[in-house]
């Protein structure tokens, strides 16, 4: 995948986290993911079709999901990882991908996105398409979050 496309995804992620969740993510690194095991308990996935095809997912633990949901609700305290938190995290990825779709469209690239799907639990084994998966690692207040991009 071309760097300009990856950068468009990352710009959309950082912009929406800042604007919608009032969170500035700290970049920790980037790696090519070689395993299908996810070490986080909350995984939100969006499929992509059109000029680009594949999936993106955000992986985090439930304590960070609760913090993000609280921020998205204007600081109203969300106490547990429940349907409200799940809905907020799914909507966050939906907004990110809407932003990315707009940015790509301005570059002449047309994509459609699926509604977000969320998986929760421990030791999740997520097999994506046979496309290399780039994992961009971030953290917020010591809590890790991975943004995985698998696009061709």
Specify the biggest β-sheet.
Answer: 7 strands, antiparallel
Q: How would you sum up the global shape?
A: globular
User: What portion of residues is helical?
Assistant: 25-40%
Q: What class, by secondary structure content?
A: alpha+beta
- Quote the beta fraction: 25-35%
Radius of gyration: 14 Å
Number of domains: 1
Q: Count of DSSP E strands?
A: 9
Please summarize what this structure is:
The chain is an alpha+beta fold. Helices cover about 35% and strands about 35% of the residues.
For the structure shown, list the relevant keywords:
alpha+beta; 3 helices; two-stranded antiparallel ribbon; single chain; globular; 152 residues
Question: What can you see in these coordinates?
Answer:
This protein is α+β, with helices and mostly antiparallel strands and 152 residues long. The chain has a single domain, classed as CheC-like (Chemotaxis protein chec). It is 36% helix and 34% strand. It has 3 helices and 9 strands; from the N terminus they run αββββααβββββ. Strands 1, 3, 4, 5, 6, 8 and 9 form a 7-stranded antiparallel beta sheet that branches. Strands 2-7 form a two-stranded antiparallel ribbon. β8 and β9 form a beta hairpin. α1 crosses α3 and α2 packs across α3. The radius of gyration is 14 Å and the shape is globular. The mean pLDDT is 91.
Describe how the helices and strands are arranged.
Layout (H helix, E strand, L loop, with lengths): L2 H19 L4 E8 L3 E2 L3 E9 L3 E7 L1 H11 L10 H24 L4 E3 L3 E4 L3 E2 L7 E8 L2 E9 L1
Antiparallel strand pairs: 1-8, 2-7, 3-4, 3-5, 3-6, 4-9, 8-9
Helix pairs in contact: 1-3, 2-3
């Amino acid at each position: 995948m071309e760097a300009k496309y990856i950068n468009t995804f990352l710009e959309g992620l950082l912009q929406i986290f800042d604007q919608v969740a009032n969170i500035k993510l700290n970049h920790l690194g980037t790696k090519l993911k070689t395993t299908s095991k996810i070490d986080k308990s909350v995984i939100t996935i969006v499929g992509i079709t059109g000029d680009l095809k594949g999936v993106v997912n955000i992986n985090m633990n439930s304590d960070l999901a609760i913090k993000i949901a609280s921020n998205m609700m204007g600081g109203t305290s969300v106490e547990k990882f429940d349907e409200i938190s799940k809905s907020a995290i799914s909507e966050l990825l939906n907004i990110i991908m809407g932003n990315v779709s707009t940015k790509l469209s301005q570059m002449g690239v047309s994509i459609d996105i699926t509604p977000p799907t969320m998986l929760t639990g421990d030791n999740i084994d997520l097999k994506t398409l046979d496309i290399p998966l780039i994992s961009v690692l971030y953290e917020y207040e010591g809590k890790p979050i991975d943004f995985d991009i698998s696009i061709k």
